[in-house]
Design goal:
two-stranded antiparallel ribbon, mainly alpha, 120 residues, 3 helices
Length: 120
């Protein structure tokens, strides 16, 4: 059995980690999020193996975890949206779908320049 002070230390470490995760989410630091994942999993595993702290202590962790989860889901949606938009733009660069005078769909192939554009 884990002594109470170790359980409190564990709770404190999780609070700190959740704050680091929040800062990484706010700043868009995906590398930091990946680095925190193993540590987060280890702390949660240790928490599950320790005596249960009081409910009010766990509510604080739950509040931060829910906040971070919502931010992570929003970030994921944003990344997917950007990815979809970039794919659409790439498709438009290769070809453009339009309609001719009779209303039939027509594909217009784009130029395939593989050069870097320099701007002044």
């Amino acid at each position: 059995m884990m002594p109470q002070h170790n359980s409190n230390s564990l709770i404190s470490q999780i609070h700190t980690l959740l704050e680091k995760e929040h800062k990484a989410l706010v700043s868009g630091d995906l590398d930091a999020l990946v680095k925190l994942l193993d540590q987060k999993q280890a702390l949660v595993t240790a928490l599950n193996a320790s005596p249960l702290p009081d409910v009010s202590t766990l509510r604080g962790l739950q509040t931060k975890a829910i906040r971070n989860q919502a931010m992570l889901e929003s970030a994921t949606r944003g990344i997917k949206s950007v990815s979809t938009r970039l794919a659409t733009l790439q498709k438009v660069r290769k070809s453009l779908e339009s309609y001719d005078a009779s209303g039939k769909k027509k594909t217009i192939l784009g130029s395939q320049k593989n050069t870097l554009e320099k701007r002044a």
